Amino acid sequence: MEKVRTYTDYANKTALTIPDHFIDVKTGNSVKVSQKIQEQVDYHSNNNTLIHLVLSALNSYLHPKNMNSDIILAEINEIKRMMQSGYAAVQTPAYKEKVFHGSKQDEVDLKEVEDVLEAFGG
């Protein structure tokens, strides 16, 4: 039998019943309620801020902060496309000089670069 706990914030007339598991509304999967969630709900119910915890969680869920990951992934994808098509930018004199005087250790294996790009979602 599943154990449920009810937390109450009497000052703000808020009560929240926490089961052992919940259904993740994004994936539909059953997820165990973590100890950290239980601790936070308990803390906020004791400090009359339970409704603020719930609304903060809903706000984060409904309005996630985009860390410009789409832009970064698009740039990485563009770099990958350029590498696969054999794109080589016009080299500036300073860069050409370095290429002519550089050692073998300065060279980058394109396979390694592709592997790194693949590992980071490219």
UniProtKB/TrEMBL annotation:
Source organism, top-level taxon: Bacteria
Protein's UniProt name: Uncharacterized protein
